[in-house]
Design a protein that fits this description.
This protein is mainly α. It has one domain. It has two helices and no strands. The protein is elongated. Belongs to the TMEM147 family. Keywords: Cell membrane, Endoplasmic reticulum, Membrane, Transmembrane, Transmembrane helix.
């Protein structure tokens, strides 16, 4: 059921864009390569952001959760 839900959401998310892309002259201008390059740059940026947050974010030694990390 989970896999069905995933494919349903993916089809509803990307299906209209794929149909629009193939039905219009967009597919003639090498936009697929541009989209792939953009996705790679986005993933690299997200990875750098994650590494920076994991490196420089202050972690307290207490068991309580403080979303704002205000010092006592």
């Amino acid at each position: 059921m989970t896999v069905f839900h995933f494919f349903n959401c993916a089809l509803l998310t990307f299906g209209p864009h794929a149909i629009y892309y193939s039905a219009t002259p967009l597919s003639e201008y090498d936009t697929l390569g541009t989209c792939i390059k953009t996705a790679v740059v986005y993933l690299i940026t997200a990875l750098i952001k994650l590494v920076c947050l994991a490196t420089f974010l202050k972690v307290t030694e207490t068991d309580s959760f403080d979303p704002y990390q205000v010092p006592n």
